[in-house]
Amino acid sequence: MSIAASAVTFLGQQADLSNLKLANYTIDPSAIGAKEVVLRAIAAPINPSDVLQARGGYVPPPYLHDLDANTKQVYVGGNEGVFEVTHVGSDVTSVQPGDRVIPSLSGFGTWRTALVAAIDDPRKTAGGKVDAFVKVPADLKEAEAATLTINPATAYQIFHNYHKLEAGDWIVQNAGTSQVSQYITQLAKSRGVKTLSVVRDGKSKAELDKLYELGATSVIDESTLLSSDFAAKLKEIVGDGHVRLALNSVGGATASALFGAVGQDGYFISYGASSGDPQVTINTSQQLVNNISVVPYWLTGNSKRDPQSRIDTVKEVIKLYEQGVFRIPDVQEIKLDGDIASFFVKAIQSPGKKVVLFD
Amino acid sequence: MSIAASAVTFLGQQADLSNLKLANYTIDPSAIGAKEVVLRAIAAPINPSDVLQARGGYVPPPYLHDLDANTKQVYVGGNEGVFEVTHVGSDVTSVQPGDRVIPSLSGFGTWRTALVAAIDDPRKTAGGKVDAFVKVPADLKEAEAATLTINPATAYQIFHNYHKLEAGDWIVQNAGTSQVSQYITQLAKSRGVKTLSVVRDGKSKAELDKLYELGATSVIDESTLLSSDFAAKLKEIVGDGHVRLALNSVGGATASALFGAVGQDGYFISYGASSGDPQVTINTSQQLVNNISVVPYWLTGNSKRDPQSRIDTVKEVIKLYEQGVFRIPDVQEIKLDGDIASFFVKAIQSPGKKVVLFD
Question: Which chain regions cross the lipid bilayer (chains A, B) (predicted)?
Answer without folding.
Answer: none
